[in-house]
C-alpha cells in the first residue's frame, strides 16, 4: 500500500490535533501530583526499612548480573522495533522505528505516559507520510500482542511451577479474567479485519442513521477506515506469526532481565514464579497511572512477588527498586542516543547541497 504525499507543514493534521495533548497548565500539574503520589507510595513501602540497609543490599548485588540484565533490556527494545516493522509490513525499516520508539519511551518517562505513545504515530506521519490513525492502530496492535504474550508467559509459568503458594490464588483469577478479555478482543479484531468492507458499510449506515453532518460523517469514516487498515496484519497469517514470535521473544528477554536482577541480589525464588510475577506486574502496568510508573511499579512488584513466596521482604523491595532504576537508565540512554542520531541526520540533510548544485 502506498500513501499520497502530503505537505510536511500539515504532518500532524487531524491526528495531531485530536490525539496529542498540550503539555501546559493542568496537564503538567496533574503529572506533578501523580509523581508526588508515586514517590509517596515508594516511601510508604520503605517505611520499615532504613535507607542505609537498602543501600547495603544494592551494593551487594552482582555487577555482571546487573550488566547482563541491562543488555537483555536493550535487546527487548530492539526486538520491539523489529515487531513494529513487521506490524507495518516493513513500510518503514527497523532503524528509524527503533529511534522513534526510544524517543517516545524517554518522553513517557518524563511526561504523562500517553504522550510518548501518541508521539510514535506522529513520527510516522511527519517523516514517512503514513496516515496518523493508520500508525496509531499499529501501536494498538502492539499493545494487544503484548497482553496476549504476557498471558502466554504466565500460563507457561503456572504449568512449570512445582507448587502454587496459597497467596497466589488472586493471581490465577486475575490471569483467567485477562485471558478471557484478550481472547474476546482478538476474536472481534479478526472478524473486523476479515470483514472490513462489511464493517465499514455498517459504520456508514450507523452514521447516516445518527444524521450527522456529511463532513463530520466523512471524517469519521476516513478515521475508522485508517484504523482498520492499520490492523491488517491480524488478517495476514505470515506477518501475524512473525509478530507473535517477536512478542514472545521480546517479553522472554524482559523476563530474563528480571530473573538476572533477582539472582544478582540473591533472592531465592523458582524461575517459573519469577516469570509469573513478572507477567502479572507487566499486565498491571498496561494502564499507566504515574509518570515513569514511579510507585506503581514498586507496589505491584512487592504485591506480586510476596504473594508468590519471595523472601525476605527487604530484598524483594530492593530488587524491585533496582530493576526499575535499570529500566529508567536504559530508556534514558537509548532515548538520548536516538535524539542525538536524529539531530545528526537532520544536520547532514541541511548541510547537503541541492541536487544539481554540486562542485563543478
How would you portray this structure in words?
The protein is mostly helical and 360 residues long. The protein has one domain (48-346). It is built from 14 helices and no strands. Helix 5 (94-108) crosses helix 14 and helix 7 (132-160) packs antiparallel against helix 8 (169-194). The radius of gyration is 23 Å and the shape is globular. The relative contact order is 0.15. Mean pLDDT is 81; it is low at 4-24 and 356-360.
Summary keywords:
360 residues, disordered C terminus, globular, mainly alpha, 75% helix, single chain, 0% strand
Q: What radius of gyration results from the CA coordinates?
A: 23 Å
> What is the global morphology?
globular
Q: Percent of residues in helical segments?
A: over 70%
Give the class from helix and strand content and strand pairing.
Answer: mainly alpha
Q: Tell me what portion of residues adopts beta-strand conformation.
A: under 5%
Number of domains: 1
Q: Can you summarize the main beta sheet?
A: none
Secondary-structure element string: HHHHHHHHHHHHHH
Sequence stretches where pLDDT stays below 50 over 5 or more residues: 4-24, 356-360
Q: For the terminal residues, how far apart are their CA atoms?
A: 40 Å
Put simply, the count of helices is: 14
Strand segment tally = 0
Would you tell me the overall average pLDDT?
Answer: 81
Amino acid at each position: 500500500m502506498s500513501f499520497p504525499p502530503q505537505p510536511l507543514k500539515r504532518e500532524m493534521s487531524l491526528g495531531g490535533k485530536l490525539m496529542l495533548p498540550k503539555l501546559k497548565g493542568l496537564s503538567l500539574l496533574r503529572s506533578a501530583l501523580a509523581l508526588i503520589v508515586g514517590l509517596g507510595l515508594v516511601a510508604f513501602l520503605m517505611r520499615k526499612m532504613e535507607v542505609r540497609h537498602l543501600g547495603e543490599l544494592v551494593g551487594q548485588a552482582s555487577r555482571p548480573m546487573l550488566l547482563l540484565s541491562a543488555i537483555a533490556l536493550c535487546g527487548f527494545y530492539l526486538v520491539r522495533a523489529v515487531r513494529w516493522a513487521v506490524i507495518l509490513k516493513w513500510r518503514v525499516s527497523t532503524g528509524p522505528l527503533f529511534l522513534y520508539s526510544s524517543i517516545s519511551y524517554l518522553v513517557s518517562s518524563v511526561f504523562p505516559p500517553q504522550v510518548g505513545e501518541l508521539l510514535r504515530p506522529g513520527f510516522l506521519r511527519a517523516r514517512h507520510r503514513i496516515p496518523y490513525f493508520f500508525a496509531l492502530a499499529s501501536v494498538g496492535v502492539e499493545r494487544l500482542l503484548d497482553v496476549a504474550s504476557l498471558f502466554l508467559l504466565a500460563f507457561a509459568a503456572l504449568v512449570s511451577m512445582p507448587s502454587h503458594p496459597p497467596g497466589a490464588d488472586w493471581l490465577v483469577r486475575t490471569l483467567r479474567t485477562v485471558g478471557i478479555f484478550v481472547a474476546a478482543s482478538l476474536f472481534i479484531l479478526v472478524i473486523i479485519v476479515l470483514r472490513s468492507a462489511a464493517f465499514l458499510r455498517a459504520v456508514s449506515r450507523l452514521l447516516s442513521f445518527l444524521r450527522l453532518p456529511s463532513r463530520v460523517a466523512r471524517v469519521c469514516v476516513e478515521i475508522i477506515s485508517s484504523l482498520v487498515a492499520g490492523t491488517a496484519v491480524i488478517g495476514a497469517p505470515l506477518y501475524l506469526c512473525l509478530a507473535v514470535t517477536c512478542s514472545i521473544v521480546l517479553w522472554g528477554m524482559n523476563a530474563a532481565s528480571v530473573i538476572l536482577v533477582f539472582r544478582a541480589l540473591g533472592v531465592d525464588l523458582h524461575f517459573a514464579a519469577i516469570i509469573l510475577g513478572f507477567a502479572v506486574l507487566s499486565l498491571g502496568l498496561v494502564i499507566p497511572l504515574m509518570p515513569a510508573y514511579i510507585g506503581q511499579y514498586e507496589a505491584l512488584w512487592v504485591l506480586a512477588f510476596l504473594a508468590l513466596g519471595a523472601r525476605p521482604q527487604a530484598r524483594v523491595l530492593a530488587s524491585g527498586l533496582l530493576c526499575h532504576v535499570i529500566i529508567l537508565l536504559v530508556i534514558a540512554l537509548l532515548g538520548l542516543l536516538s535524539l542525538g542520531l536524529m539531530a545528526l541526520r537532520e544536520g547532514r540533510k541541511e548541510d547537503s547541497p541541492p541536487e544539481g548544485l554540486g562542485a563543478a
